[in-house]
Amino acid sequence: MIVFQSSRLPMPAIDRKVVVAWIRRVAATYGKQVGDLGYVFCDDEEILDVNIKYLGHDYFTDIITFDYSSGHVVSGDMYISLDTVRTNSEQFVREYDARRFRSAYEAELHRVIIHGVLHLCGINDKGPGEREIMEECENQALALLPLREV
User: Fold this and answer.
1) Which of the residues 1, 7, 28, 120 could staple to 42 if both were Cys, CB 3.0 to 4.6 A apart?
2) Which of 95, 94, 101 is closest to 149 using CA atoms?
3) Per-residue pLDDT tens for 25-63?
4) Is CATH 3.30.1360.60 what the domain over 2-144 is classified as, yes or no?
5) Helices and strands (DSSP H and E) totals, the chain
6) pTM above 0.85, yes or no
7) Which of 57, 64, 59 is CA-nearest to residue 40?
8) Which 3 state secondary structure label does DSSP give 58?
9) Is the separation of the CB atoms in 74 and 32 below 8 Å?
10) Residue ranges in 12-81 assigned as alpha helix (H)
11) Across the beta sheet with 33-42, what order do the strands follow?
């Protein structure tokens, strides 16, 4: 089951049915099945609190993924800062995203949603060259998301 909830902010406008099917499709491309996934959309203050409390990191981030996967079943909880998503969307408008989404914010939100799933599928982004691999995997995943009517 994939659950979306919002903490302290309005729920972002996402097509849950389409996003759930997309997440399952992306996981399948890595030979994974989707178990329980929880998305918590929050603000910068809350994600900072989570980052300090659970990871010992005193900085803002767009997503924190807690991995509960077992074998070929991906499961986890993901905290997404909508504040950081908005800031990043204003700073990093990619040509690819501009062609596929109504707004840079929508594109960035979908990128971050799938970023957590990619971590659960085993893609990392902290080591040498891993960030570029993650970005390519994000782009491939975004290409699997059905086009929306603009």
Assistant:
1) 7
2) 101
3) 999 999 999 999 999 999 999 999 999 999 999 989 999
4) no
5) 6, 4
6) yes
7) 64
8) coil
9) yes
10) 16-29, 44-50
11) 2-6, 33-42, 73-81, 63-67
